[in-house]
Amino acid sequence: MGQDLVEIRLHELQFTFEVKKQSSCVVQLVNNSNEYVAFKVKATCPKRYGVHPNTGVILPRKTCEFTVTMQGLLTAPPGMQLKDNFLVQTTVVVPHGTSDKLFVPAFFSKEPGRYTEESKLRVFLVSAHQSLEGQPTNGIHETEPAVPNIENEVRDVANEAPAPLESCISLHQEKRI
Q1: Which residues neighbour 142 within 8 Å (Cβ) at sequence distance 6 or greater?
Q2: The CATH number of the domain covering residues in 6-170
Q3: Cα(16)–Cα(124) distance, rounded to whole angstroms?
Q4: Where do the domains of the chain lie?
Q5: pTM for the predicted model, two decimal places
Q6: What is the pLDDT of residue 151?
Q7: Nearest Cα residue to 177 out of 30, 50, 69, 23
Q8: How confident is the model at residue 156 (pLDDT cuts 50, 70, 90)?
């Protein structure tokens, strides 16, 4: 299997910061293959974020979305910066047509012969009171920030709210954090 099994239409998660208010960001996953592709989203700080769906199967040549919701913070972090990251794992599902009832965590194991793509997304905060001038367009900064290796420090993220999608099969029941 080659590179770019799934295209992620957002390379960083940008949240508008207001004290005690939630903020959400939608990420699109585009399946570039003729295969059923499973995805899994992990976060370095799962208590701060809800992700729905956090796992799923994307139908061949279709688009799927997941929503990340940042819980309201009581105070602004120093310098309006968070070191939070997300890891999106994708892999071809065998057999074709696998659904939520047949989803197996072993899809993402690192055993020989198992191909899994991983993409990292970094979190950025924007003050609700900042002017829009100088802000990134479509959530993308002109320069790529350095992203630390989060492979060993990510944990599964809990679901936040249901969001039905025709080309994305949700794999878990609704779960609140």
Answers
A1: 136
A2: 2.60.40.10
A3: 9
A4: 6-170
A5: 0.70
A6: 39
A7: 50
A8: very low
